[in-house]
Write a structure and sequence with these properties.
Layout: E1 4-9, H1 15-24, E2 28-30, H2 33-43, H3 54-72, E3 79-82, H4 85-96, H5 101-107, E4 113-117, H6 134-150, E5 154-157, H7 163-175
Parallel strand pairs: 1-3, 1-4, 2-3, 4-5
Domain NadR/Ttd14 AAA: 5-166
InterPro entries: NadR/Ttd14_AAA_dom (IPR038727), P-loop_NTPase (IPR027417)
Organism: Rhizobium lentis
């Protein structure tokens, strides 16, 4: 059984908070590639930032997500990813038209259940790593909600409930296989 689990969906929908709770419960977690890249680029005056060079940013996110996937493959137990390779490839394909999604997603498979955080305006905030608005976040969510099923994933939309209950929901769905 593939125990590499993606939590994707709307930017600002609570993914990082969910991952933190999963980590507190003892599960392996992998932080979002995009946030790590933005931090690195801002610290080093880099240009691979989504608001400067989105294509360079997406290519770096693909590389980082592929490395994260490879590193997690041998781990025991569930490993939860805050976004992953498909999100990054989707962004690059949307931006450039390069048919990269199917090529990458076939090689780097995750658990068939992918959990999506829906748009949730009440908790959406911008910060130094998330400068885009809610409308852009919703458009990205809509793309991902179409792409994951097209690639053979079973999309589970997370309910808008408290963090601990959301984590219970995820774990219950995974154990119900």
């Amino acid at each position: 059984m593939n125990r590499l689990v993606l939590i994707s969906g709307c930017s600002g929908g609570g993914k990082s908070t969910l991952l933190a709770e999963l980590g507190r419960r003892g599960h392996a977690i992998v932080e979002e590639p995009g946030r790590r890249i933005v931090k690195q680029e801002l610290e080093g005056d880099g240009a691979a930032l989504p608001w400067i060079d989105m294509a360079a940013f997406a290519r770096r996110a693909i590389e980082m997500a592929a490395a994260d996937h490879a590193a997690a493959r041998g781990q025991a137990g569930w490993t939860f990813f805050d976004r992953g390779l498909i999100d990054a490839a989707s962004a690059l394909q949307h931006l450039t038209g390069e048919p990269i999604l199917e090529k990458l997603s076939g090689v780097h498979r995750y658990n068939t259940k992918v959990f999506l955080t829906p748009p949730w305006l009440e908790i959406y905030v911008t910060d130094p790593e998330r400068r885009h608005g809610f409308d852009e976040a919703v458009a990205e969510y809509d793309r991902l909600a179409t792409i994951y099923p097209a690639l053979g994933y079973d999309v589970v939309t997370l309910p808008k409930i408290a963090v601990a209950e959301r984590v219970d929901f995820i774990l219950d769905r995974l154990e119900a296989k």
